Amino acid sequence: MRILRFVGRRLLQLIPVLLGVVVLTFLLVRVLPGDPIRSILGPNATEADADAARARFGLDQPMWKQFLDYLGGLFTGDFGTSIQSGAPVTGEMALRLGPTLELVVIAVTIAVLLAIWLGIWSARRADRFGDHTVRIFALFGNSIPEFWLGLVLILVGYAALGWFPAPSGRVDPDADLTPLTGADLVDALITGNGPAISSAAAHLVLPVLTLVIGVLAPLLRSVRASALEVLRSEAYAAAAAHGLPERTLLRGYLRRATLVRLPSLAALVFGTALGSTVLVEYVYSWQGFGQWALRGLLYRDYPVVQASVLIIAFAYVLVFLIADVVHAWLDPRVKI
Length: 336
Hints:
It contains 15 helices and no strands. It has helices spanning 2-31, 36-41, 47-56, 63-75, 89-123, 129-143, 146-160, 184-191, 194-231, 234-241, 246-258, 262-275, 278-283, 289-298, 302-330. The protein starts with a helix and ends in a 6-residue tail after the last helix. It comes from Paractinoplanes ovalisporus. This is ABC transporter permease. It is found in: Cell membrane.
């Protein structure tokens, strides 16, 4: 019951946060240089054509009226109409968000599990060869650009070895996949389409691996540092001195105490990955949320930029809410 009250309070706090994001985004995108109408009409368009386009998208109205119209549309789930494509932003976003969420959720889940295992394993072998190897890998993951790593993995995994499909989409066209959620692997599993399952899984390997290597590094360093702190604590030394079994020490003391810091960092990494997958999506022709948002920014597509920023802000708040609940479950000292 206490957790439900905490979740309710945090959801109420979500309203002013998102309202602030809406206001700031609405104002900031209009400060950017460039005219979105001229960017889609081209240099040869007449002023009459530009005025007609502005009237069509409501850009000829005063800014306060544009904001009220936009805010009213949000309450009905209408994010507006894309200036670039002329299609509803809600429909475009629904098609693009699923593939990116699938990519990020799988990558972050794998990275968290690997970070827990490798971080604790490394801490228990501090200053030995295995520990140094893990630390070098974490440094490598922190330093390497994701777009360069993606190109290297394509060169090795596709061009040289031929183990993975070409980076030209998310599933083979002949897989006859029925789109439901936009996440191709999920759609294939729901419909029981065997060829689509294998195709979507094969297309996921390289982009997921690219994201995992980048996401794993900060998580791994955090878990290792927390595990070392627990191993050197008086409480752990006292438990070991009392002759507790190794399995009890690992599960009851080391692992649970080590994971206390992980939820907040994992939430931060998830939000960052959701907003920064654009380079990975471009390298692998993923056609996801990041590509869509960047294209909207380049073309000054106000509704697309506003919707993408709002979704990322909502994702941040939601994952941090989940992280706080998990943190309180792991650490009974935390009061919520």
